[in-house]
Transmembrane protein 106A
Amino acid sequence: MGETFSQFWKVSDPKERDGKSSLHKKSAGEEEVTNYGTINGGDSSASCVPCAGSRGCITCPTCQGTGRIPREQEKQLVALIPYGDQRLKPRRTKLYVCLAVTICLLTSSLIIFFLFPRSVAVQPAGLNASSIAFNFTTATINLNMTNMLNVTNNNFYPVTVIQLDIEVLHLSLVIGKTTRKSMLNIGPLHSGQIYYTVSSHIQDNNTYNICTWVKIKVHNVLLHIQGTLTCSYLCHSEQLSFENYQYVDCRGNATLPRPP
C-alpha cells in the first residue's frame, strides 16, 4: 500500500504542475485582456469593471454590453464609424459645389456690372440769354451771358455735382470768370441741366468797332469757353473738363432767353 500511494502521488504531481501552469497562463491572459480593454493608455481607473449597482453605470458601447464603466467616463469613449458608412459619402456633393461656384460668379458679375464706374458726359448746350452794354469812354463792352450745360449720368448710381468753374476767353485773353457751388443730384441713367451766368469785359478797339458800327450787319463776337465740372459718386470725386466756341451777338439789344 505504501508503494502504491507513493506512485499515485508521483503520478498526480505532474498533473498538478500542469494545472498550476495552466492557471498561471489563464491569469496572464486575463491580465492581457484587461490591459487591452483599458482606456487612456492603460489607466486602470478607466477600464471596464463591474459595478455594484446599475444606476451609476451604463452599457459600454465598445464591448457590446459585456462590461460596464462609470457614467462620468462616458464622454471619454470614441465611436468608430465603418469606412463604408453612408454618412461618410455625402450625396450630391458635386451639385452643391457647382451651385455655390455659379452663385458666387453670378453675384460677382452683377456687382461688377452695376458698380463699375462709367463716364459722366458733359455737353455745352449753347447760349440761353445775353445782354450787352457799352462804355463809350473806355471803349469797353460789358457782356452778361447765361449758358446751359447738359450733364448725363451713365452710371447705375446717383451722381452729385459739387462745383462748376468757368473761364471765358476772347483773343486768348481771359475776359470773365465765375465759380458756382452747385449741389445738383442726377439719378441713375438720367440727365440734368445747369445754368450759369458769366460777366465779361472786352477791351479791344476792333471788337468795339465791330459791335458799334452801324454799316456792319453782322455783329458777332467769338468767345472761347472753358470749364471744369467737379462731381462726386461712391465716395469719389472726379473733375470733368469741357470747352466750347460760341458766337454772341453784340448789338445794342439783348438776346431774349430761350424757352425751356
Observations:
- Residues 164 and 229 are 5 Å apart (CA to CA).
- The radius of gyration is 51 Å.
- The chain has two domains: 24-84, 120-249.
